[in-house]
Design a protein that fits this description.
heterodimer; A: 256 residues; mainly alpha; 2 domains; two-stranded antiparallel ribbon; 2 strands; flat; B: 241 residues; alpha/beta; 6-stranded mixed sheet; 4-stranded antiparallel sheet; 36% helix
């Protein structure tokens, strides 16, 4: 069964795709931190961040629809955390509503804070989508390794990447087998079957983990994770790093 | 038969739940031999294989390449006994083919250039060099099996152990695999109940049942003995062998 969710766009060749993954990871983290830490209600810095991202998306040759679609994932989180912010206390009351003992007040300050959080979270998710869509997952792991991310974390991520598809495959096969045997059953029975399937999936994954561990031991693994590196920086990487630092520094100075 | 590279004397093993898997296995395999290990489901084939590189250790004696398998010697033996598991999904656990084939050499403490060289040689040996940067989950089962073999070839093993190598393979991939195994010169232990596969890839056969070797001999001696094969539930329809 085919599923390319994680690496869907990693074959699109572009100047951004070809950058050294380490530089890319650092560059995007710098951009992200800069976006998150920008203070004040002035929209100018955010417009500039948006412009940087627009340039990067163009350079990356990713379909805009793909970036937007992937970015929507942040929406529920933003709404959940930011929904109440417009109702925070503030001097400039725009609208109020008396609901018995509860008074709901919408303030301008609250609304502004909400807008900033929404913009920040969308800009941040653009960074994340851009980074992951232009970097193959294995390369991303290599870059994190090289940047001294703990080996254990890398190993967990790499197993997740490797076995996500295997587990998904097992689940799809189980669902097929279930559907093949359950014609016209009620939805309630479906949920019951689903619960059983999740249980079976857990046990199978646990057993697989043991089998994988045996395979690792058979090839010399003794609890110590060893990694190898093979990246080389070139002129394009240096240019990207310098441009990114200069732009971010400029925006931050300007914002103050 | 050459000098024995595998000597097993009265090997017994029970799993923690108490089920006895091996009940006194005796077996000797000479250098360069290809031994087929046959037996019905639950006969103890896989359990026996796991003793060959010290992952499991039962009572009795297992001597590999002249070294007794103990807790101390097992790690060094693991590089010399390449174990290919039945399910390549378990064998291939790294994000790329390169990382997977390089895992063994890297963990044996080899340097970057040497690992690189081992990976290329192993992939070339199984004719999969073009797949070096691919991710395992996008490969077909036949490709996965070949790469699973490469993951142990990269450690330059003296003994190659394969558990059910032909399972789930279509006829063409199965034939390719037989050709590949024929080209590999090291001592081989192949556990399978695909008797045709065994007869084409092995020089000797041992029949395992209820955790003990019931018979051992040349391919024709064992696979040709209809009464023996029938008795241990290994019989194929007439003319299949």
């Amino acid at each position: 069964m085919e599923h390319g969710f994680l690496d869907e766009m990693s074959c699109v060749q572009s100047p951004i795709r070809r950058l050294d993954p380490r530089i890319k990871v650092l560059g995007f983290i710098a951009l992200l931190v800069s976006i998150v830490l920008t203070r004040g209600a002035s929209p100018a810095p955010f417009v500039l961040y948006g412009a940087i991202l627009a340039v990067l998306i163009t350079l990356s040759r990713l379909p805009v629809s793909h970036v937007l679609e992937r970015s929507l994932i942040i929406l529920p989180f933003t709404l959940m955390t930011a929904l109440f912010i417009p109702f925070l206390k503030g001097a400039d009351v725009l609208w109020s509503f008396d609901a018995g003992p509860l008074q709901i007040v919408l303030t301008r300050e609250g609304l502004e804070a909400f807008a900033i959080i929404a913009v920040k979270s969308f800009l941040s998710i653009f960074c994340a989508v851009l980074l992951t869509a232009t970097t193959g997952f294995p390369e991303l792991l290599k870059a994190l390794e090289r940047l001294h991310c703990p080996a254990l974390v890398i190993m967990i991520l790499s197993f997740m990447y490797r076995y996500l598809f295997v587990v998904q495959d097992e689940f799809m096969k189980m669902r097929l087998a279930k559907d093949a045997r359950s014609a016209g059953r009620s939805r309630r029975m479906d949920w019951k079957a689903l619960a059983g399937m999740v249980g079976v999936l857990f046990v199978r994954s646990y057993e697989r983990a043991e089998a994988v561990y045996l395979a690792m031991c058979s090839r010399g693994y003794n609890g110590r994770i060893i990694v190898s590196h093979d990246f080389r920086l070139n002129r394009a990487d240096a240019a990207f790093a310098i441009l990114m630092i200069a732009t971010l520094a400029g925006i931050n100075l300007f914002a103050q | 038969m050459g000098k024995s590279v595998i000597e097993i004397k009265d090997l017994r093993f029970a799993y923690p739940d108490g089920s006895r898997a091996l009940n006194g296995v005796n077996l000797a395999v000479g250098r360069g031999e290809a031994l087929g290990l046959i037996g019905s489901n639950g006969a103890g084939k896989s359990t026996l294989l796991l003793h060959l590189n010290g992952i499991l250790r039962g009572e009795g004696r297992v001597r590999i390449l002249g070294i007794d398998v103990t807790e101390k010697t097992a790690p060094q033996l693991r590089s010399r006994v390449g174990m290919v598991f039945q399910d390549p999904e378990n064998q291939l656990f790294m994000p790329t083919v390169y990382d997977d084939v390089g895992f063994g050499p890297l963990h044996l403490g080899r340097g970057k250039a040497e690992v690189d060289d081992s990976v290329r040689r192993a992939l070339a040996a199984v004719d999969m060099l073009d797949f070096i940067q691919r991710t395992p989950h996008h490969l077909s089962i036949g490709e996965k099996k070949r790469i699973a073999i490469a993951t142990v070839l990269s450690m330059d093993p003296e003994i190659l152990v394969l558990d059910e190598p032909s399972s789930n393979l279509d006829p063409r991939h199965r034939r390719d695999l037989m050709e590949l195994l024929g080209k590999l010169p090291m001592t081989k232990i192949i556990a399978s109940h695909d008797l045709d596969f065994i007869s084409r890839t092995c020089t000797r056969v041992a029949l395992l049942d209820a955790g003990a070797v019931m018979a051992a001999g040349s391919v024709t001696e064992i696979l040709g003995d209809r009464t023996l094969m029938e008795r241990f539930g290994m019989l194929e329809p007439e003319g299949a062998i």
